[in-house]
Amino acid sequence: MKNHQKRQILVVDDDYDLRENLVEILNAEGYGVQATENASKAFEKLQQTDFDIVILDFMMPGMNGIEALYELKRIAPKTKVIMITAFATIENAVNAIKRGASEFITKPFKIEELLILIKQVLEELRFEYGIKKLEMEDTLSSLSNSIRRQIIRILQSNKEMRLMQIVRELEVKDHTKVIFHLKTLKESKIIEQTSEKSYFLTLEGQKILECLILLEKYFDDNASPV
User: Fold this and answer.
1) What DSSP string describes 22-65?
2) Between the CA of residue 31 and those of 26, 82, 174, what are the distances in Å?
3) In terms of C-beta distances under 8 Å and separation of at least 24 residues, what long-range contacts does 91-97 make, across chains too?
4) What is the mean predicted confidence (pLDDT) over 193-211?
5) In angstroms, rounded to a whole number, what is the distance separating the alpha carbons of residues 113 and 129?
6) What are phi and psi of 191, to 5 degrees?
7) Which residues contact 131 (CB under 8 A, 6 or more apart)?
8) Which DSSP helix (H) or strand (E) runs through 225?
9) Order of strands, edge to edge, in the sheet holding 199-201?
10) What is the pTM of this model?
11) What is the DSSP letter of 143?
12) Mean pLDDT over all residues of the chain?
């Protein structure tokens, strides 16, 4: 990212009051913030500024958020996207993340929830940078998301857990995103399910956990400016 001192965030939402409130709050948190009301203006800003995160509304006049994701990731592939949606279904969540969103948050939301998500996504950026630096993208890219790393640690401590037990342990409000992350870990053969639908770490997952602990220590000891 071009600006290493202040993280840059772009808010894209047609709701004027929400947009201005987010700009004020995020500025107060120390972020560099710009805002616009539609996708086409967002694309212009993305070509002018190197943003760390785009906060993108799901429903907007003209091109909606899902349609905008493809073009956004083409223009700025390294930029992370947090989708704002009033329709928290598994289908919408999976569709948004498949298109390139890192996270989504459901309206109405508390600002504390969004601030936590922003910190998680920035941690994802840091982790991805470290993996790329170590040339381990193919092996560990599924672990760049902090929720997935938390799931691995929870399962390591508890051996077997059902979906809602994991959701409660994570203290995540929306269980749909946890379902997606569990699916990703399962596809990576890091976790599996018993016949009773409880999740557990595979032998490969336990090896990955050991590597993960070493990697995080390495990243902390060799903090990057990204």
Assistant:
1) HHHHHHHTT-EEEEESSHHHHHHHHHHS--SEEEEESS-SSS-H
2) 6, 15, 26
3) 92/58, 93/174, 93/176, 93/177, 93/179, 93/180, 94/180, 95/66, 96/58, 96/65, 96/66, 96/69, 97/180
4) 87
5) 25
6) -130, 165
7) 137, 140, 141, 144, 215
8) none
9) 160-161, 199-201, 191-193
10) 0.64
11) G
12) 83
φ, ψ for residue 78 (rounded to 5)?
A: -85, -15
Q: Bridge-partner residues for 161, per DSSP?
A: 199
Provide the CA 71 distance to its chain's centre, in angstroms: 18
| Distance, CA of 58 to CA of 103 (rounded, Å) | 12
Cβ contacts of 59 within 8 Å, gap of 6 or more: 65, 85, 86, 87
Helix (H, G, I), strand (E, B) or coil at 192: strand
How high is the pLDDT of residue 106?
Answer: 85
Domains of the chain: 8-109 (3.40.50.2300), 133-221 (1.10.10.10)
Specify whether the CB–CB gap between 81 and 101 falls below 8 A. yes
